[in-house]
Amino acid sequence: MDLIRHLELFEAVASEGHFGRAAERMGMAQPPMSQAIKRLEAELGCVLLERTSSGAVLTPAGARVREAAGRARQAVAEVRAAAADHALAPVRLLVDPALPGAWAAAIVRDAEASGLAVDLEPVPTEGALQRARAADLPAVVLAPFRAEGLRASGAAPALLWEARHEAPRSRTTALVHEKASAAFLARLARELRGLAVGGDLVPMPQATALGRLAAGRVHAVISTEAPVLPEALAGSVRVRSLPIGRASAVFHAVLRRTARDRATVAVHAAAAATLARVHDA
Amino acid sequence: MPDLSTPAGGTSAPGAPDPGPCGPGTGGSLALGDVLRIADRLGVDVAVAAARADGTGPVLAHRSQEPWPGASLYKTLAALALLRVPGLDPSERVTVTAADRVPGGAGLSLLGDPVTLTWRDLLRSMLVGSDNTAAQVILRRTGIPALDAVAREAGMTSTAVGTTAQTVAAAVSARRTGGSGTGTDRDDSLLAEAASDAVLGSTTTASDQLRLLTALWQGRLAGPADTELVIGTMGRLVQRSRITSAFDHPGARVAGRTGTWGPFRHESALVMHEGEVPIAVCVLTESLEIGRLLPAVDDGIGEIAAALVGELRSSR
């Protein structure tokens, strides 16, 4: 029997003191209400209500059961509330800070369209991988990386932008990134060499990079977002996107292969699907 | 066609202890922490197994029981199987024609005209240059069950020879077992890349490679002359950019066998130092990208082997 439901009906009769009024309040007819209380009494093995000519009166056992039933109902409500909180809590998705803003927005929008709430947390790839391996956290990371234990989506290459100084005083190339992985830097340096963008590749925040570009102290700034240049630089700096087949930032959505939580798995799948749609071909 | 669902080899050898998945700095071995740091820096996956070739001392291992596409690592088995063919004269001449050719980057696979050479030289071309055509001709003579028999004697439990398409599919489905999620992923791109590749390859584990090297060095798989021929020929491996490159110091020699396909770069080798028991080491790697040269990964395989061999030599 559905004990919680039967206790609810019993509480209704107890508070109304009348089978008919209680049945009406619960939106049912009197006979099934009476039968339900009989079933409950049989289940619990005691008489809960004394039927009188004017209605129903709680027996001493019924009074104690009513009290306990109130607590049980409260506990069940708490269980439902906890589940509801969890169901509504957004899944955290770790994203490398280089993820283009338009992609980040598309991931959140696509996820919400399929009923998933997502909060993005920018975390550089190395840290994100450690956390993704340690817990069931989905992440969008920058290749290449050690994929041990992780399910990785297909590769999603993003356009890289180059802002190049016309008359640089340095051969250093700046990469707009707070904390790029060694693996990504090595890969990108090789690709840039293929495009004759030579020199050391140094990761730094955007403001630092553009400041040094203005002073000619880096000869180029590479970023995954098209740079917005101050007017003062317009004459001395040229902006172009690098050819996608030659140099790019490649993203993958990853999640521990053993992850089971439905919302987490769904967010990873949604992020993977979005990456497959928005990537630059 | 070989049945990849039933691995070659018996079940006699105990599995090498494997500390299981771990992050840098864990697992009880400093060298294994170094291995994972190198792999992280290069952005590749890695499985390793290493131990003294006489079977004494510790075994260093990471993901050593997982099946990987081993590509040409099977060629050591092929050489041993050829030398065991009853009544085969290694100096008998064989003519290889254009019809025998299979794709490959070295040896007879590069040539267009008929070539006549001995079984022994076919073996040399297969081991020194990783010549796919020489391997195919040898396997046609031995049959794949003969390789399975060598593997069984070496105590290998999870190694099988098959086409690249079969071996990649077998290894990928093993690592997907028990996984969750819908939709396609990177493994699907890998399967698509391998789907039509009929060149012979293998599935294997780092542990199995360790067993093979150990049994070979201990002379359990061939007589003294043939053992010397195989190890000596492996010492002349053309591709020196992986494990060999890390041991170019005086007094060191490497007898290695590489395996390369798509994102996979491997080497199994005996690293020999004068006056010491050789160290058997296997390094299996997988990059995210397919079809790039990635010399840093070749280098990294050497670095990884050096870390493992260094720890084992100093633990004497």
UniProtKB/TrEMBL annotation, chain A:
Q: Which organism is it from?
A: Brachybacterium phenoliresistens
The family database entries (SUPFAM superfamilies) matched by this protein are listed as:
Winged helix' DNA-binding domain (SSF46785)
Q: Could you tell me the superkingdom of the organism this chain comes from? A: Bacteria
GO cellular-component term (any): protein-DNA complex
Query: Which Gene3D superfamilies does the UniProt entry name for this protein?
Result: Winged helix-like DNA-binding domain superfamily/Winged helix DNA-binding domain
Sorted alphabetically, the keyword list is: DNA-binding, Transcription, Transcription regulation
What InterPro entries does the annotation carry?
A: LysR_HTH_N, WH-like_DNA-bd_sf, WH_DNA-bd_sf
GO molecular function (one):
DNA-binding transcription factor activity
Q: Boundaries of each HTH lysR-type domain copy?
A: 1-59
Q: What is this protein called?
A: LysR family transcriptional regulator
Concerning its family, UniProt says: Belongs to the LysR transcriptional regulatory family.
PROSITE patterns per the UniProt record, alphabetical = HTH_LYSR
From TrEMBL, chain B:
Region Disordered, annotated ranges: 1-27
What Gene Ontology molecular-function terms does this entry list? Answer: beta-lactamase activity
Tell me the first and last residues of the signal peptide. none
Which InterPro entries would you find in this protein's record? Answer: Beta-lactam/transpept-like, Beta-lactam_cat, Beta-lactam_class-A
Superkingdom, taxonomy of origin: Bacteria
- Cited Pfam families: Beta-lactamase2 (PF13354)
According to its UniProt entry, one GO biological process term is:
beta-lactam antibiotic catabolic process
Residues of the Beta-lactamase class A catalytic domain: 54-285
Q: What is this protein called?
A: Beta-lactamase
Protein species of origin: Brachybacterium phenoliresistens
